[in-house]
Write a structure and sequence with these properties.
The protein is α+β, with helices and mostly antiparallel strands and about 180 residues long. The protein contains four helices and nine strands.
């Protein structure tokens, strides 16, 4: 799978990007917006996404906790795109934070949040399922940290309601 999978929200809009930026602020997650090596105040999504095509791709580093980092890349307005480092998701507490972040984004947008293996776009292995209202395994053969979680729970890695997922929180809560 690689240690830097890609996470995405397909069929997004500029408004969805802004919702993500608003969520980061509301949750109080530490963040840093940069264009190249220059750190700047976070602009509105519309301003970032309307930059010239030849401009350097801006990015937003977000820390839901000090030990978990997501790097959002403003490549297109029709897909929210970010990277995570699975080496930082070792241990149940960090995995819970990571999955909680996917869940918060998915709930906020009302859209799936999909994680593809590094370099294997379009083949998600994990994601927030809007209808199930939880993060679920999407691949028949989970990899890395998620395979260990699957083996530890003695659950089948196949797609099913018994597949391991991040702890669900009751609807309407912030987790």
């Amino acid at each position: 799978m690689g240690s830097l999978p890609d996470v995405r929200v397909p069929n997004a809009s500029v408004e969805d990007w802004q919702e993500v930026l608003d969520l980061v602020a509301e949750e109080g997650w530490k963040c840093q917006y940069s264009e190249g090596e220059t750190v700047l105040p976070m602009p509105r999504a519309e301003a970032v996404l309307s930059r010239p095509a030849d401009a350097e791709c801006p990015h937003l580093r977000v820390w839901p906790t000090a030990a978990v980092l997501a790097i959002f890349r403003f490549r297109a307005d029709d897909e929210v795109d970010f990277d995570v480092d699975l080496r930082e998701s070792q241990g149940q507490d960090r995995l819970d934070v990571f999955c909680g972040s996917l869940r918060k984004i998915g709930r906020r947008l009302g859209k799936p949040v999909l994680m593809d293996p590094e370099g294997d776009y379009g083949c998600p292995v994990l994601g927030f399922d809007v209808e199930a209202d939880r993060v679920v395994l999407l691949a028949d053969e989970p990899a890395g940290v998620f395979a260990r979680a699957c083996r530890a729970s003695n659950a089948s890695p196949a797609r099913s309601s018994s597949a391991p997922s991040c702890p669900a929180s009751p609807a309407g809560t912030s987790a």
